[in-house]
């Protein structure tokens, strides 16, 4: 099986962050499991429409490139993720026609997720699966497809991704960009296959779950560093979700 891990970094700041903090772990993981590593440094679509919306939409075009067809599996990984090189292969056990992903509406566990929602620390539009979709005019859905890590097949999923890219637009400054729309369409197609959530370990949810359980939160960088190190060794792919300040604390892990 020919496979690749693909990410996108636009701008010197993001390129430097990925190279200095993340790349070493990604390369070790790719060498261990025989993945090609593709780091894109410019938009795949340079049209006026593409330039007016977030680069996050560009992930929807990675199955449509000249190089895409040579791969049986392409794994999209957001660039603000640190990879544990000891992690197993993410594509093992995923049917060819399915998209390997996690359900953010049940993360870290369904019980923890519900406790966080009840605490009021996350808005329903970010954590309630129904509201997550209906707040932008989509039908309610039972799950939230987290699009930061996805195991894909160019053969089976190119048309679906191009469809989402072509018919939807950013929803008025919404920081979830393509995620709500892709989550809807993947579930509409019943294309999801749940993978081990450790492959997309969302630190904001892990931190909130810990706060709800213990009643306290880290008060300095040292305490935060201990928490992040613990999560690194417990999980496979650590997703910082835009918290680059957290990434700088654990730069040595990359």
Question: What's the short version?
Answer:
Helices cover 40% and strands 16% of the residues.
CATH superfamily: Spore Coat Polysaccharide Biosynthesis Protein SpsA, Chain A
Side-by-side strand order of the widest sheet: 2-1-3-6-5-7
> Which range does the strand content fall in?
15-25%
Note the quaternary state here: single chain
Point out poorly predicted stretches. Answer: none
Based on Cα principal axes, name the global outline. Answer: globular
H/E element order: EHEHEEEHHHEHHEEHHEH
CATH class: Alpha Beta
Task: Give me the Rg, rounded.
Answer: 18 Å
Instruction: Summarize the main sheet.
Output: 6 strands, mixed
CATH architecture field: Alpha-Beta Complex
Query: Roughly what percent helix?
Result: 40-55%
- How many structural units, i.e. domains? 1
The secondary structure category is alpha/beta
For this structure, the CATH topology is Spore Coat Polysaccharide Biosynthesis Protein SpsA, Chain A
DSSP helix count? 10
Query: Could you tell me the mean pLDDT?
Result: 93
> How many strand segments?
9
Q: Report the span from N to C terminus.
A: 27 Å
